[in-house]
Model the fold of this input.
Amino acid sequence: MRVTPVYYYSSASGLVRSFAQRLERPVHDLAQRDVRLSEADGPWVLLTPSYKTGNDANDTIPEAVRRFLRSEVNRRRLVGVIGSGNRNFGRYYQDAARHVARASGRPVLFEFELAGTPWDVEECRRILADLDAALAAAPAV
Done:
């Protein structure tokens, strides 16, 4: 069974990177130019932070995520979104993940705060394993 990879963007804090690496599956860092310019070879999941803190002129979706999603192939193969955020951002908490999900018609699979708790990691692993199984059982298109 294919393990669905996670493409993520993490700031210098490394909180999202830490979470992604604990998922125990293939992960690809969109901060790396070669990854950002590549195309996913099958279904994939986006893990994105939200950074907007109340400035309406400040876009919450990281530019690296926007660039990766410019590829029609990547947009078509996206199967779900995971969001990282900070509740201090108020109404902008998880805004990037929710925006990408709405725009793409894909579900938000999971949301967590900052680097996530051990429970968050285990729950996200379970959700992704269920996704892998569902994709494996789906008829080929």
About this structure: The chain is about 40% helix and 20% strand. The mean pLDDT is 92. The radius of gyration is 14 Å. The first helix runs from residue 15 to 21.
